[in-house]
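Notes from the pairing session

We agreed to fold both candidates in a single pass and log them together. This is the raw record for the first candidate, unedited. Please don't reformat it; downstream parsing expects exactly this layout.

Candidate A
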Amino acid sequence: MMAHVDLCSGIGGFALGFQWAGLSKPVLFCDIEPWSRKVLAKHWPDVPIAEDVKELANDPDGNVPDCDILTAGYPCQPFSHAGKRLGHEDDRHIWPYLLQIVAQKRPAWCCFENVYGHVSMGLDQVLLDLEAEGYASRTFIVPACGVDAPHLRYRVFVVAKDVADTNSPRCEEQRRSQSAQEKHQAPQCGSGWLLEPSVGRVAHGIPKRVDRLRGLGNAIVPQLAMKIGQAIKQCEAEL
C-alpha cells in the first residue's frame, strides 16, 4: 500500500476511494474546515490532521511525511463560474503552496481535483508547473454519473507521474488508454445508487445541516477516486 498525503481533504473522498482500490493508506490529512477535520478524525483516528496547507508549505520536509502519492481537491472558488473568477488574485488560490510541497516531497504520483470552470481559468498554469517539476500529467473531465451517481457533477481531475528520472513509455501508454476509456464513458445515470430524496428549502431536526451541505458540496465522489486508484495501481504493476 502506498503512503498517501491527502491535502484539502474535505471529508476524505480521495482517501476512501484509494483504499477501496487497494492502492494506498493515508499518512496525513489537511483541511481548513473544522467540521471536515472532525469527520476525518472519526473515520481515520490514527492519521494526523493539519489545518492549513500554507503552513505545511512553509516547511514541507518538517511538516509533511514522505509519500508515494499526494492528492488535493484544492479550493474551486477562484475558478468556479458560480463565483467572481478572480483566479490567482483570490486569497483562496493555494495552488502555489501545493506546488511547493510537491516540489519538495517528490511523490511518485499526484492527483488533483477541481471544478469544470478550471479548464478555462488556471488549469494551463497547473499543467505547466507540473511539467516544469518533471511530472507528466493527464487531465480528465468526468461526471459523477460516469460512475452511475444520479447527478452530473462534472469535475476536472489531473493525474501526474514523476518522470524526472525515469523513462516509462508503458506508463504513458496506460495513461493514453485510460484517457480514451474516460472519454467514451457514457454520461448516463444507472443502477447501484439509492434514489436521492427531494430536498426542501427548509429542513428541521438535521444536526449540523450547513456543515453537512458544505462538506458534501466540497467532497469528491469516492467511486471516481477508486477508478483513478485502480488505474494507478495497474500502471504501477506494469512498470
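Candidate B (folded immediately after A)
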Amino acid sequence: MEVNPEQEKKRIIAFLKNIFKKQKIENAVLGLSGGIDSTVSFFLLKEVLPPEKIFTAHLFYEEPVFSHIAQILETAHIPDENMYLLSIKEPVDAAAKLLGIENTQEDKMRKGNIAARMRMIVLFDLAKKHSALVCGTENKTENLLGYFTRFGDQASDIEPIEHLYKTQVYHLANYLGVPKKIIDQKPTAGLWSGQTDEGEFGFTYEEADQVLYLHFEKKLSIKEIIHQGFKNTEKIINKHKQNLFKHNTPYKLSHFES
C-alpha cells in the first residue's frame, strides 16, 4: 500500500490542472474542516491555482477549529476576503425542528446528515458566486465503506484524493508538510460533539485499509484475510456491502431495461 508521495503529488497536480483547463474555470471552492483530508486537498490545490483564485469555507456546527487553519491560509497568502468562517448551527437546528428530529441515536444521524447537506448548499452557492469548481475531499477508504452523506460531503465537482486510501493520505500529508497537529488528531466528520470516524466504525482506518486493499486490490477472500490476523474483516466488508446502494442511486428505469 506504499505510495511514492513525490510521484503522487505530480499526478494529482497534473490532473487538477487538466480539469480546470478543460472546464475553462479558474476558481475553486474548498470546505476546510481542519482535518487531514481537506488540508491535503488544499495543499495540492494551492500548487495549481494562485491564492486569489482559491476560496475556502470553514463551516462549523459547534465551535470553530480555525486557529491552525488560519495559519495555513495566511502562509499560503489566501486573501482575507476569500476565507469564509460560517456557523451552520442555526439553519441545521431550524431544519431539525421542522422535521421533528429529537436527541435519540437514530435522530442524531439524521441531524448529522442535515449538517453535511447544509455544508454542500453553502459550498455550491459559493461556487456559483465565484464561478468556481467545488473541490471534494473524499478518500478511497470512505468511498469503499460508503462513509459519506449522499448529496452532502460526497457532493463535489472534482476529487483530488479519492483514489488514495486513508493511510496513503497520511503518507502524502507528511511529504507535503501538513502540520503535525492536523496529522495527529482523530479523524472526525464534525457532525456532532465528540463524534469520530473510528468510533462510529468500531475499527481503525489502518485495519480497514489493509482489509479493503487485500480484498479489492489483491482479490483475497474474507477467510484468507481473517487468516492473516485481521479480526474485523467481516465487519469491514459488511460495512462496504451495506452502503453499496449509495453508489447505485438514483435507480433509473433505463438501467433495468438495458
